[in-house]
Amino acid sequence: MNEDSESGQPYDITVTEGDAIEYVEVKTTSIPNKNWFYISRRELQFAAEKEDSLTIANVLLSKPDKASILFLKNPHKLLRQRDLNLALVMSMRCEELVGECME
Q1: CA 16/CA 19 separation, integer angstroms
Q2: What are the tens digits of pLDDT across the range 68-77?
Q3: What are the tens digits of pLDDT across the range 10-63?
Q4: Which residues contact residue 71 at a Cβ distance below 8 angstroms, ignoring those fewer than 6 apart?
Q5: Helices (H) and strands (E) in the chain, counts
């Protein structure tokens, strides 16, 4: 879906088998041992809505011709089970607001 540009959807790929639709969000890095990635509020909400129908594919591009993929099936469930954790990152606007409050 997002082969040439960002589609605006909270997933990148759909896989259809019969009546079942699997949504796949791809997160890619070339940094070894990087165990985090950015996920938008929309993607998180979509994960909660789709549960077992959503998988995050965490792709590590280690060499030009080599990749490894970790599949995170139902990330919302993994969050509830504490197998995944959330981290908050302040946007630039939030940092500006915090700076104004601190002055």
Answers
A1: 7
A2: 999 999 999 9
A3: 999 999 999 999 999 999 999 998 999 999 999 999 999 999 999 999 999 988
A4: 55, 56, 57, 58
A5: 3, 4
R_g of the chain, CA atoms, integer Å:
16
Query: Are the C-beta atoms of residues 66 and 35 closer than 8 Å to each other?
Result: no
Structure tokens at 51: 């549960």
d(CA 43, CA 35): 18
Give the domain ranges of the chain.
13-102
Model pTM? Answer: 0.80
Beta-carbon contacts of residue 26 (< 8 Å; ≥ 6 apart)? 2, 12, 13, 56, 57, 59
H or E element: which one contains 27?
Answer: strand 20-29
